[in-house]
Design brief:
- The chain has 159 residues and is of the alpha+beta class.
- It has a single domain, classed as Electron Transport, Fmn-binding Protein, Chain A (Pnp Oxidase, Chain A, Roll).
- The protein is 27% helix and 41% strand.
Length: 159
């Protein structure tokens, strides 16, 4: 059973990393693409701004289960989320989430093609290691001594 500390660590890591790969199912294949996450810990929700003209919205409408993968390769910290998603045209939420990165895709929050993708996490797994240099040293020591390296924390968490 995961502790509240583990659950909070998942949210900490997602907030820090913020860019993730989102994987959806189209009925035949899995598809992944990078997206900027708006992590709202207080709501226990992850939001994205998306474009209604892209196929992920149709995929989510048909198959609302998805996976999110957050990765900080330099820090050797990773989070995998399984969750349920829905796409909405909540104009107030779009304006609330509007930020500089969104300006790369749309001219204003009033663009009629913008939608909110809301993900409710169900389960998470995280890997939290001391970083690349320390991990490499621990692996070298383990290889030399025949032991197993302690590369940090790995937990499965119901969020």
């Amino acid at each position: 059973m995961a502790s509240n500390e583990d659950v909070e660590r998942v949210w900490d890591l997602m907030e820090k990393i913020s860019i993730c790969m989102i994987a959806t199912w189209d009925g035949d294949e899995l598809r992944s693409r990078p997206m900027g996450a708006y992590v709202h810990r207080d709501e226990r929700m992850i939001y994205f701004l998306t474009d209604v003209r892209r196929q992920k919205d149709d995929e989510i409408a048909r198959y609302p289960k998805l996976a999110l993968s957050f990765a900080d390769t330099g820090g050797q910290k990773y989070v995998s989320i399984s969750g349920h998603a829905e796409v909405s045209n909540d104009r107030a939420k779009i304006k609330e989430l509007w930020s500089t990165p969104a300006k790369a895709w749309w001219d204003s929050p009033d663009d009629p093609n913008i939608r909110v993708l809301k993900v409710r996490p169900v389960e998470a797994e995280y890997w939290d290691s001391p970083g690349t240099i320390v991990s490499n040293i621990k692996m070298a020591v383990a290889a030399a001594t025949g032991g197993k390296p302690d590369l940090g924390t790995n937990r499965k968490v119901a969020v």
